[in-house]
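Researcher: Let's continue the batch. This sequence belongs to Metal-dependent hydrolase, and it's 407 residues. Same format as the previous ones, please.
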Amino acid sequence: MKILSASYVLTFDDNFGIITDGAIVFDEKIVEVASLEYIKEKYPNIEIIYIEGNSVLMPGLINSHIHLEFSANKTSLKYANFYSWLNSVIKNREKLIENAKTSLIKQELKKILKTGTTTIGAISSYSFDLEAVLSSPINKVFFCEAIGSKAEMIDTLFADFKSRLQQAQEYNSKNFKAGIAIHSPYSVHPFLTREVLNLAKNENLPVTSHFMESVEEKEWLNKDEGSFLEFFSNFLNQTKATSKPTEFLNLFKGVKNLSFTHCVEANEEELEKIKELNASINHCAISNRFLNNSRLNLERIDDINFSIGTDGLSSNNSLSMFDELRACLNIHYEKNIIKFAKTLLNAATNGGSRALGLNKGRIQKDFDADIISFCLPDTIEDLEDIYMQIILHTKYVDKVVIGGEFV
Ligand code: MCF
Ligand code: FE
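Model: Same format as before. Here are the structure tokens for Metal-dependent hydrolase:
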């Protein structure tokens, strides 16, 4: 067992307990959290690692939605409008994927750890990121992506998907869990979605899908109109969407650990359905701003669990969760920013854990020991302010513990 002690221990338990001069006892799991004084007396034979100076211990951050295979993008893709972005992806995809070498993805994963993320939900289109992801100590749900809307291609696509999933499943371990990503309602044929989701239901795999990211998507799915019509008729000889949004959502009935990414254009009925499915929403604020100039209305989802994702470098300039959280503070005009900062950090810990179906995101007995530590530049007068001050001032963390080990 190990013990870490800091000026502030943020538990993210049901009461958002904060222990000043606190300590965490842990092995693979959290064993006990209490005041340093109490822990010292109870565990006299275990060395305590003290972190000096306005130090904070809290659960590692969970980036619930990321595309590592797009990590080579810096300036190639077109922002501001989803249709332009999509066309620029089609044009540059091959070059970008080719340039996202294992070594580059490994580098990005190091930065991700250094910026306080201990768990990722990684969407993998081709499994080209598998080697890099496996070599990192970070926890990962590795979502193998199904994509393809042409009926005549379903058998081939399903066979390819199954082989990628099987390969990923061979690596299931304490820090690796294979899951399933349906790309979106517009890009995956419902028959393919159904087959793939049958696997998820039978094997109890976590599932995620992009949903209602853009007005273009919404127009196409509901009315077979808009710029997607041009796109689909040019590239795929298709003039009608293959499923309506609610039909698409209905396919997910029976999936246990389910999340939908974006949902900025989802209407009341669709949000109600998402709630009924007991699904979470992965919120990627920077990506929404860059690609669509849109913002998820958080008031409309206050009874749905939400988590925070950076999306990939295909729609963000950073994979740091602290950068994303700072952007969230600026993008959302919540009245009480101090309270909102707490909500955001909760989404980045508890919210992500629930979205991915994990036992993480809290410094609480029996939860996985994924812990980060860092120092604030000065003391905190009012403890309620700590969440906002953390978001504002933290760029890198000092210590990272994953599954009880320092990494
Ligand atoms: O989340 C963003 C924007 N929405 C959709 N897809 C992606 C995003 N970043 C990368 N992608 C990938 C997706 O996984 O783009 C590929 C898919 O494989 C091409 S289809 C837009
Ligand atoms: Fe995405």
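Researcher: Any comment?
Model: The chain has two domains: 2-60+362-406, 61-356.
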